[in-house]
Structure formats: C-alpha cells, structure tokens
Amino acid sequence: MPDARDWPEVVEVTVDPAFVHSHGSEETGEDHGPEDHPEVEGGADAAPTPGTLTELSTYLTDGYWEETHRARHTFNLASSGIGSNDGVITYNVTGYFNDEDGMDVARQELVREAFRQYETLTGIQFVESTEVTNEVDIFFGDAMSGASARYFIYQGTETTSRVEINISPDFYSGQTEVGDGIYRTVIHEIGHAMGLGHMGNYNGEHVTWADSRSFDNDSWQLSMMSYFSQIANPTVNATYGHVIGPMAADMLALDSLYGDLGYGSAGAYLGDTVWGFHTSVQESSSAAYAHLVDYLSNNAVTIVDGGGEDTIDLSGFAMDQRIDVRRTSESHTAPRTSDVGGGVGNLTLAVGTLIENVIAGTGDDFVFGNNCANWIEGRSGSDRLMGKGGDDLIFGGAANDFLRAGNGNDELHDGWGVDRMWGGEDLDVFILAHDDQRDFIQDWEAGDLIDIASWGLVDEGDLEFVQRTEECILVREVGGSESLMIRSGNGEINVSDFAADVFIFI
Predict the structure, then answer these.
(1) Residue 307 belongs to a domain
(2) Strands (E), 49-171
(3) Total Cβ atoms within 10 A of residue 416
(4) What does the alpha-carbon distance between residue 367 and residue 382 come to, in Å, rounded to a whole number?
(5) Is the pTM of this model over 0.85?
(6) SS3 breakdown of the chain: % helix, strand, coil, rounded to 5?
(7) Which of 8, 168, 343, 376 is 20 to 30 A from 506, alpha carbon to alpha carbon?
(8) 484 lies in a domain?
(9) Contact 90, 128 (CB under 8 A)
(10) pLDDT at 1 (0 to 100)
(11) Beta strand 357-359 with 375-377: parallel, antiparallel or unpaired?
(12) Residue 160: how many CB atoms within 10 A of its CB?
C-alpha cells in the first residue's frame, strides 16, 4: 500500500481524539451523554445564552474551528480548482494504509446507510471505493482506540484533501444498529469530514455541560455534533435518545457549506412524502427514515423535506401526542418540536421543511397546524386540533374533540362525540356527524355554513331553534336526538339569522 508521503502536501488536524465520554454502561446496557446530571455552576451573568439556529450553524461551520485554532475545511464539489470533486465524494471502509482491513463488516453497513442518508439530504453523491489512492476522499478504519476524525487540507486553502475516520471495535461494543449510539457516532464523524465542528469549544474527554458549553441550548436535540444528550442539558425538555440523522442546526450548517453549489436540503424529498406510518420513504434513500416509526419512541429525529405536499402519519401510536408542524425559523433558538411515540421533544423539523398534513393516533392528541392549507385528522381520542392560516380541513374523529381553525375558508368535521369547533376568520363549513350528541359551534359568523346532511333531514322545517342568550342559539332535530349549540363569533345572533341557506340538508 502507498505510504502517507504519497499524498499531496497537506495540513493534518484531528477532532474527537478520544471521544470515550460517550460509552454506555455495560451493566445496564444504557447509553449516556457526557454527564447524566451535571452540576450547573456559576451565576446567571456568567452563563452562556441560547443560540439561534443560525448562530449554532455558524459555530459549527466557523466558530468551532476559530476558537480551537483549527482550520475550517470543506470538500471542493465544483468541477474545477484544487481538489475538485464535481459533486462526488468517495469513501473506503475495507482498508487503507493506516488500517489494512478497514472496519468490521456490520459497521461497514452502518457507514453505507449514513452516506445514503447524507446523499438524500444534500444531493451530494457518495460513492464507495476499494481504492487506497488519493482519489478516495474518506477512509474508515478501527485500528485505534476511541472515535476520531483526522482531516487533511491542501496547504494555503480551506479545501479538504482527505479524511481518516477511526471508530474502535470496543466503542459502543456490540452495537451495529441505526438507533444505537454507534450510528450517532458514525454520522457525527462524517459531519466532521464534511466540515462541521462541535457545538461548543470542547473536544475529547472531561467535558461537562456546566463547564464546557458555548450555548445553553447545546444538545443532541439540535445537533448530532453536540457532546450533550438531552438529559445532560438541564434546559432541554426532551427524553433521552440518540439521533438517527443530521438535526436542525446540522442541516443549516451543511446548507451553508455546500448550498451555493446547489447541494443542500432544498432538494431533499421533493415529492409528496409520507413520514411515519404508511411511509413513502424507500430504504434505498434511507433505512432510518423508511423505518421511522421503529425509532421514534427511543431516538431523536429531524424531518428534512424540501417540497411537495407532505404528511406526518402517526396513526399507529396509542399514547397521547403533541404534534407541531409550524415552520422552524433559523432565528429560533429551537426547531419546532413534537412529543410523539411516547417520547418528549423527540421529533423536530428542519429549517425550510413544510408539512401540510397530519394524521394523529388513537390517544388524546394536540396538533398545531401551520399557515398552509392543512389536512389534520385527530382519529380516535379526545383531541385538540389547531389549524392556522390557509384553507384547512380538520377531522375530529371519535371522542370529544376541540377543532379550531384560523384564517382561511376551512372545513371542520366534528366526528363522533361532543365536539367544540371554532372556524376562525373567513367563510367556514361545519360538517356534523349523526351521533346523537350535542356539538358546539363557538364562533359562527354570517356566511358560515352548517352541513347536517348526515342527520337525514330535508329542510329547516325539521329543525327547532331556541334563543338561549343574545349570543347563543340551540338548534334541535324535531322529534330526534341531534342538537347543536351555536355561539356568535362577533356579537348578537338571532334565530332570524339562520335562513335556509345556512344549513346543508340531504
């Protein structure tokens, strides 16, 4: 094999020289961050502040390298210039001059999965090679202890020549699965290869959140490059879970490094993608995302979706969930965060990701929509379903639900149970089920329609109107058990306001 001297003249830098702080407990089989319950010392005046996602991503691309006196670096994905790759990065997991037999076979597959994921999210083409020449960009081995990434840059430039990643066989010994700590380590080290530093001014051993953080919100919830688990950071409200892909700050950082050449999250999952149950994500793009429902309960996930009409389907979960698909802004100090599959703060949205449709589970779920035209299904359980702007369709499903739309011409379907509905501004349609229950319209305004076709009535002669208060009217089915309480959204209402064209009959 060629000697290291055969490579072009380069500068060598190592990150994560030991990284042993992330080992789990062999007795319990649990993985922990650098500190389970760190001592948080120092007064409020001395403490770092939370960073916005922009500030965090800039630290990953520039701040870390500056503070640690290391060289900023990226691959040259252009078609010309020193080290030009023309959009292709090659990697070798089978052996090179510093480790002749490369990585363990099972962990080789983890590396391949990680690169499939990176390729789908960025559009960069990652190609496996068995060559050991300077045409290969990233080498993987396991001959040394711990986990580390050693990168080389061309003299006088910020262009990466090659990267050597080492992950010892006894690092997370026995782990070979995507949801394990070993997979987080793989994507973390590849993050270094791509040009990302750590989320704070730390490297290697003896790192605690109390003493080592640069930002108060530094944790795995925001970045795979963090050393701190969710429970190691006392300011984070989230359950412990290894990440299974780049998180919100990471994607913003990768976009910053490679977006000018057209590589980034804007091109990820451009079709009408279904995330979760009944997914449309294929294993060929990412086994982690294709089997998302298998990981959500125990891992941390960021959805990265560049376009299309997209759906989060969590219908297979029976526990109560909080699902938030409002947009994540780069000026926020945290992405939009959901509590799903029994976890807390375990599902987040990347900047630029827009999810139009949500299907909740069978628990008592709380769903926040966004300013697009949302399709929101509560399914069973006593749900609180919130639209926002846009012309929304909101379905309560079984049990007693709250349905609240926002601006836009919305449709609210009450389903079975005692439901309360707010249409919001503009012209709305309230569609009632035949369930022998009393439902409530809380903000009726002139122009809103009430669809009672399911009641089987012919016209307004089949209805009885009772003026309860100046702002409230009771509508009952004559000779039947259906009823509806209607409250005004903007002042007094009278029986005379309800002409025949307000109601939709069979």
Answers:
(1) yes
(2) 88-92, 125-128, 138-141, 147-154, 160-167
(3) 17
(4) 12
(5) yes
(6) 20, 25, 60
(7) 376
(8) yes
(9) yes
(10) 39
(11) parallel
(12) 24
Q: Reduced to 3 states, what is the DSSP secondary structure of residue 350?
A: coil
Tell me how many domains the chain contains.
Answer: 1
Helix (H, G, I), strand (E, B) or coil at 178: coil
d(Cα 194, Cα 200) in Å, to the nearest integer? 17
Residue 404 CA to residue 258 CA, distance in Å, equals: 41
Closest-CA residue to 16 (of 202, 199, 172, 179)? 202
Map residue 239 onto helix, strand or coil: coil
| Residue 443, token pair as written in the block | 């903000």
302 located within any domain: yes
Rounded CA-CA distance 355/278 in Å is 16
**4 three-class SS:** helix
Q: Residues 475-496: pLDDT tens digits?
A: 999 999 999 999 998 888 999 9
DSSP codes joined into one string, 180-212 = SHHHHHHHHHHHHHHT---SSS--SSS--HHHH
Three-state DSSP class for residue 382:
coil
What's the pLDDT tens digit per position in 267-295?
A: 999 999 999 999 999 999 999 999 999 99
pLDDT in tens, 369-414: 999 999 999 999 999 999 999 999 999 999 999 999 999 999 999 9
- Answer whether 61's CB lies under 8 Å from 257's CB: yes
Closest CA to 201 of 32, 36, 48: 48
What band does 240 get if pLDDT is binned at 50, 70 and 90?
A: very high
Task: State the Cα angle at 119 between 118 and 124, rounded to 5°.
Answer: 115
Burial class (CB in 10 A: 0-12, 13-18, 19+), 449: middle
Please indicate, yes or no, if residue 28 is contained in any of the structural domains. no
User: With 90 as the cut, is the pLDDT of residue 45 above it?
Assistant: no
Find, among 388, 246, 252, the residue nearest to 333 by Cα: 252
Q: Widest CA span of the chain, in angstroms? A: 94
**Strand residues in 44-184 grouped as ranges (E):** 88-92, 125-128, 138-141, 147-154, 160-167
- Give the CA angle between residues 147, 117, 124 to the nearest 5°: 100
Question: What spatial distance separates the first Cα and last Cα of the chain, rounded to whole Å?
Answer: 81
User: What's the mean per-residue pLDDT of the chain?
Assistant: 91
- Reported as a pLDDT band with limits 50, 70 and 90, residue 242 is very high
HEC letters along 22-46: HCCCCCCCCCCCCCCCCCCCCCCCC
Which pLDDT score, from 0 to 100, does residue 8 have?
53
Domain range for residue 413? Answer: 261-504
Give the type of residue at 477: E
